């Protein structure tokens, strides 16, 4: 089932959240009550470091629009910094930014709600007259579902984050190995690689988003919200235990490391040692072309790993979303900015590291990779495109991030020498505790 189909079936928690609407005036031209507009006033944009090129490209294209930007962590790792900052501004009744980029997909749940004092939610509805429907229709099917609540869309997806399997064809040829197609083969390749070529690796467990890659991508029912306000986690499921055993074996033999992909010395240690890795399509620019600086003609892209006898089920690892403030005093400039950063070639094709959510930009981004002959296999475009329709719907969006429990329990546990399998009960308990704190009923 696709993400879009899951949303229609009510399997995405967003579809049943029923928060108070952002807009206080359904009769306004935008579906919310705009602030008094100040023509040509400066807009403030919050971005993470990876989205700074979006602002630079916008300034070049629209030099007459006054804009300033502030860099923050983008709520990476489920830090919640976006929400905490806006909460303080809601309390003060002033100071809101005009546009915010968040790496998380769950912020619409809180950003669409009225505040406790009755102030309309921070996130402006985008499909009630503010943005043209023709423009919104240009996004990949299902890509706006996570930010759509009861038919109202509150954010625009920046890029898709479906998982695939990246492999270094040069190293595979040198070692005489084949590309794995299943999780079982991935674990077996780890054993073989460790025995025959110690020091070479097949990935890292040092980042909190690995929960999406390995557990979402292995159809492990660890993070589910089958209906509104309900949370379910089953780390004792056969898939949850199966992928944990594979991870533990590869951590033990050294083919999975504990270094973050974004640590200062990862590239120095592993640039020429990474034989293959499951991961989202944004690894193309962020990891291979960026941090590792792997030259063209070495890396290939294969379908996401599956279980033996099963079907491909891709994980979904972020992607990020752009929010417009309902408090902005220059909505014309905000509209221009949102449309530019999500669809314009100057950013999404020329400067973005990931696979754009806007379909026309995605086609050009793929063409750019093909023209550069970066990947060794000509069918990488088909692999990436297919993966976008293969995302497993067994993980749901909630008002908190699954990354926080992973970062609190699993990453330090691994560092202390514990196995992931032994940490599963504690991980599940922490997930359930977070669900309870956020007002969900655990079943």
TrEMBL record:
Presence of keyword Membrane: yes
Keyword flag Signal: yes
Stored InterPro entries: Bact_solute-bd_prot1 (IPR050490), SBP (IPR006059)
Position of the signal peptide: 1-20
Keywords in alphabetical order: Cell membrane, Lipoprotein, Membrane, Palmitate, Signal
Gene3D superfamilies in UniProt: Periplasmic binding protein-like II
Protein name: Extracellular solute-binding protein
């Amino acid at each position: 089932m696709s993400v879009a189909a899951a949303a229609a079936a009510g399997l995405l928690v967003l579809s049943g959240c029923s928060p108070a609407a952002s807009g206080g005036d359904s009769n306004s031209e935008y579906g919310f009550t705009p602030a008094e507009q100040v023509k040509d006033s400066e807009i403030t944009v919050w971005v993470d470091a990876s989205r700074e090129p979006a602002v630079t490209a916008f300034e070049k294209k629209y030099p007459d629009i006054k804009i300033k930007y502030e860099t923050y962590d983008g709520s990476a790792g489920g830090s919640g910094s976006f929400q905490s900052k806006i909460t303080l501004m809601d309390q003060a009744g002033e100071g809101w930014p005009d546009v915010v980029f968040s790496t998380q997909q769950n912020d619409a749940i809180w950003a669409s709600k009225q505040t406790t004092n009755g102030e309309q939610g921070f996130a402006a509805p985008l499909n009630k007259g503010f943005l043209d429907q023709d423009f919104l229709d240009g996004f990949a099917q299902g890509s706006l579902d996570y930010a759509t609540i009861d038919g109202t869309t509150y954010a625009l997806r920046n890029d898709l984050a479906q998982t695939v399997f990246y492999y270094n064809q040069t190293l595979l040829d040198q070692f005489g190995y084949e590309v794995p197609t299943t999780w079982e083969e991935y674990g077996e390749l780890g054993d073989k690689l460790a025995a025959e070529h110690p020091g070479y690796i097949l990935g890292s467990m040092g980042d909190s988003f690995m929960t999406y890659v390995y557990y979402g991508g292995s159809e492990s029912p660890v993070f589910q919200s089958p209906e509104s306000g309900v949370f379910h986690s089953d780390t004792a499921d056969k898939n949850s235990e199966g992928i944990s055993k594979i991870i533990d074996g590869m951590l033990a033999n050294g083919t999975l490391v504990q270094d973050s992909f974004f640590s200062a010395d990862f590239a120095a240690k592993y640039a020429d040692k990474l034989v293959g890795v499951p991961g989202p399509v944004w690894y193309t620019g962020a990891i291979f072309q960026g941090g590792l600086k792997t030259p063209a003609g070495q890396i290939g892209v294969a379908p996401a790993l599956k279980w033996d006898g099963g079907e491909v089920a891709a994980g979904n690892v972020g992607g990020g979303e752009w929010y417009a403030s309902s408090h902005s005093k220059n909505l014309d400039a905000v509209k221009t900015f949102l449309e530019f950063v999500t669809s314009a070639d100057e950013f999404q094709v020329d400067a973005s590291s990931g696979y754009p959510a806007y379909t026309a930009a995605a086609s050009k981004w793929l063409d750019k990779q093909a023209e550069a002959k970066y990947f060794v296999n000509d069918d990488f475009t088909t692999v990436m495109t297919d993966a976008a329709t293969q995302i497993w719907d067994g993980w749901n969006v909630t008002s908190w991030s699954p990354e926080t429990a992973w970062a609190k329990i699993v990453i330090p546990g691994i560092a202390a020498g514990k196995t992931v399998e032994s940490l599963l009960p504690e991980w599940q308990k922490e997930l359930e505790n977070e669900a309870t704190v956020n007002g969900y009923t655990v079943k």
